[in-house]
Amino acid sequence: MIQIEQIDFRFTWPIRHEVMYPEHNLDFVKLKNDAEGIHFALYFNHKLIGIVSIFNEGAVYQFRKLAVLQEAQGLGLGKKLMEHVIEYCQIQKASKLWCNARANVKEFYFRLGFKETEKTFFKDGYDFIIMELDL
Ligand SMILES: CC(C)(COP(=O)(O)OP(=O)(O)OC[C@H]1O[C@@H](n2cnc3c(N)ncnc32)[C@H](O)[C@@H]1OP(=O)(O)O)[C@@H](O)C(=O)NCCC(=O)NCCS
Fold first, then answer.
1. Which mutation among 105, 109, 122, 130 tests ligand 1's pocket best, with the greatest number of atoms within 8 A of CB?
2. Per-residue pLDDT tens digits for 32-75
3. Is domain 2-134 in CATH 3.40.630.30, yes or no?
């Protein structure tokens, strides 16, 4: 059973930390504008297993810190969460959704229709590619 709900930004921090940056402390995963974002959680059989955060400037939306607990990866849940984000952005009449994608997961975003841009960078030990989806 899958449920997706908006949550307070503070509930995203433990999964961000565990899945994305376990080698850092919890403060490392807190974003300075977290309070301005929209945050979604995916519950699988009533357990919080996935999170993602959305920020916008006008009609341009960015999602950040998508993470699914390792034990639940590969079950289609990250895709479900992203489909929810895309639908949410369409309802807001967003023109574009973009992200700083970790290069090792770009295939996941291709499957959702995102296109790779030429903008790449290296940060915090990871290679990133800016990817975007026209809505
Ligand atoms: C990336 C992540 C969110 C994907 O979530 P997930 O629930 O494991 O992915 P899904 O099971 O929904 O996969 C959907 C599709 O993408 C593919 N996919 C998922 N991760 C992939 C990867 N790393 N490389 C290539 N394909 C991948 C799946 O095979 C599946 O393909 P299909 O639709 O043809 O069956 C998750 O693996 C994760 O949290 N990773 C660690 C944190 C991270 O990298 N976050 C993203 C930062 S930009």
1. 105
2. 999 999 999 999 999 999 999 999 999 999 999 999 999 999 99
3. yes
